[in-house]
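#lab-general

N.A. 3:47 PM
ok so I finally got the sequence cleaned up, no stray characters, all 205 residues accounted for. can someone with queue access submit it? mine expired

B.Y. 3:52 PM
send it over

N.A. 3:53 PM
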Amino acid sequence: MLGQTVYHQLFAEGDNAIGAVITVKGIPLRVVGLYASKGQSAMGQDQDDVVMIPFTTGERKILGVAAPTLATTENALYPAISNPYGIAPRLTGFVNAIFVQATDSGNVQKAIDEVMARRSAIDTVARQRQEVERQINTINEEQARIRENMKALPKDSDILRRYLTKFDTQESQIESLRTKVTDLAAQESKLKADLDNYLAELNIE
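B.Y. 4:20 PM
back already:
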């Protein structure tokens, strides 16, 4: 599907674009329809400067990635079509946006819900890790104050012995909390990797 700006850049006035084959990043695509003119958006963007393509076609052949906003490099699996006569392209410059669209919008919502659920799980674990790290910092700050107080105490002081006992208890707490931070960080990394894999393998066409 072509926006009106792209249509006028590629075809002469009055030409029938339906059924014509155009190339997008070297990949031949057949035009199946034209969008009515929408004009500029409130932000001044040309809403007619658009090419709409199927999701999987964009993901696998043109964009080369699961997320269309990410940069891509030339894919050797889909080399540019040959041009033995050196015909110059009709369109120079770049289209502002290429959108991908699934044939079933319900699949899009399911994918969005799944991504949001996975991100929520990542955020939950991250908050748990940050809370444990905060507890460690609190204990460290308290220990720093205790050390300063201990400097002024006699070595046989009951208060000093209580401080030392508390120190031992806190050191055990810190060790346990650090282990928990390590476990949560590993869990967070796994959830992020699982999300990346899900997005890489996502197919909603």
